Amino acid sequence: MLTCWTVLFIAQHARLILFRHFTDSNASRSFTPELLNFCLQESIGVSVSTARLLYRAQLHPAFNEDFGVVTDDLVHLHTFRVAVIILLGLEMRSSAVNPDDLEVCLSTLQAIAKVHITGRR
């Protein structure tokens, strides 16, 4: 069941990478503030939708035992990045972010840490 979620999280990760430019601190790049703000808002949107997907995945009775086992490092990395972006959105007081989204990500990271070395790091 959870392997179909893996494909979905890989797609979400690809979407997140498309908007990574808001993290670019290289002064020689000529990104406009509007583009950087757009990328940040899109990253928050992707992160929130991933958190909502994680919430739905957590409804599976064996989620805590299975998620870290059947998913790979990319899914674990994506979950971590999503948690960081949601934390940033909460700090910015973005109306798109709910504190429950962060809780979902943190509980998922705890499920990963139980069975996988990536999660423990």
Broad structural category: mainly alpha
Rounded mean pLDDT score: 81
Helix share bin: over 70%
Number of helices: 6
Q: What number of structural domains do the residues give?
A: 1
Q: Strand percentage, roughly?
A: under 5%
* N- to C-terminal distance: 26 Å
Number of strands: 0
How does this structure look, described?
- The protein has 121 residues and is mostly helical.
- It has one domain.
- The chain contains six helices and no strands.
- It has helices spanning 2-18, 33-57, 63-70, 73-91, 99-115, 117-120.
- It is globular.
- The model has no long low-confidence stretch (mean pLDDT 81).
Précis, in short:
By secondary structure, the protein is mostly helical. Helix content is about 75%, strand content about 0%.
Write the SSE topology.
Layout: H1 2-18, H2 33-57, H3 63-70, H4 73-91, H5 99-115, H6 117-120
Helix pairs in contact: 1-2, 2-4, 2-5, 3-5, 4-5
